[in-house]
Amino acid sequence: MSLFSEKSLQSNSELSPVLQKQREKIDLLLNEIEKVVVGQEKMINRLLIGLFTNGHILLEGVPGLAKTLTISTLAKALKLEFKRIQFTPDLLPADLIGTLIYNQHSGKFEEKRGPIFANIVLADEVNRSPAKVQSALLEAMQEQQVTIGENTYPLDSPFLVMATQNPIDQEGTYPLPEAQVDRFMMKVFVSYPNRNEEKAIMQRMAKTSGKAEVKPVFTIEDIFEIRKIVDEIQLSGRLEDYIVDIIMSTRYPEEYNMPRLKEYIEFGASPRASLALNLGAKAHAFMEGRSYVLPEDVKAIAHDVLNHRIILNYEAEAEEVTSGDCIELILKNVEI
């Protein structure tokens, strides 16, 4: 498996040795993931972009598409502390962040830290937990800290939440509020594998023993080094204007010759979307083996960055207009 395009590899022989070295390590990382996960290149790409830009990722797809498997496999290959939390309707905030426990020997209350204290936290089926638990998780994502009793504790760095949600179950679920889901850098829709991938999954996984072992090939130092590389990826002033135009067109579509879109959009994208498009485009360029951003990088991640940030009204729902339709129209009409 390789997420680098052949064209990119051929046209960037001038890349720095540091970038080249990290690209080779990413190939090792992908090879380890490929031992367990078949296909799902886009999902893996977006998880890595989130990792390299310090952005949380929300995955949505029907059961059985290897969402949980991919995240847990990635964590094993990264040599990071990993915790998985199965969200249920009876989960409490204390089950997530921790609580105070009375010690009879010392006569004092001592904090017991919850599973949120890890480098990668998998919030499995996050839409099954009540609002208080979701708020505790989203606050930790935003503030990078947790308060237990009277004390506040910083979370480990890197700290990433990779959440999954099931779109087909309605009973016993608590949909994430639109304002809070904005804290996820990207919302990625995970699709079914194709025929060849389905057959490969069956051949590899239909056994009761002898599952592949994933070896750690990445360190925390590698992640921080790649983050520095991503910060140095060149993004021109014109592309900055292009990103701003895309975001502004979700708020004021009539100013971009899309008056019909104004009838469907209740609220446009927040400033978090501008930051996510900027950083995400840089990370996408890095994954493509380039030290500079192209318009294609912005367009490649636009759907994942915007599809949960454009809030549609009832008229859009009645006419079966989706946020994806709106984003597609915006990318066609906004000029660079």
Write the layout of secondary structure elements.
Blueprint: H1 6-11, H2 17-34, H3 41-53, E1 57-60, H4 67-78, E2 82-86, H5 93-97, E3 98-103, E4 108-113, E5 120-124, H6 131-143, E6 145-148, E7 151-154, E8 160-165, H7 178-181, E9 186-189, H8 195-205, H9 220-232, H10 237-251, H11 259-262, E10 265-267, H12 271-287, H13 295-306, E11 311-312, H14 314-318, H15 323-333
Parallel strand pairs: 1-8, 1-9, 2-5, 5-8
Antiparallel strand pairs: 3-4, 6-7, 10-11
Provide the CATH superfamily of the largest domain.
P-loop containing nucleotide triphosphate hydrolases
CATH topology of the largest domain: Rossmann fold
Which sheet architecture does the biggest sheet show?
5 strands, parallel
Under CATH at level 1, the class of the largest domain stands as Alpha Beta
Average pLDDT figure: 84
Strand order across the biggest sheet? Answer: 2-5-8-1-9
Order of helices and strands: HHHEHEHEEEHEEEHEHHHHEHHEHH
Oligomeric state: single chain
How much of the sequence lies in strands comes to 5-15%
User: What number of structural domains do the residues give?
Assistant: 2
Report the total helices. Answer: 15
The poorly predicted ranges are: 1-14
Examine the secondary-structure arrangement and name the CATH architecture of the largest domain. 3-Layer(aba) Sandwich
Q: Tell me how many strands there are.
A: 11
Give me the Rg, rounded. 21 Å
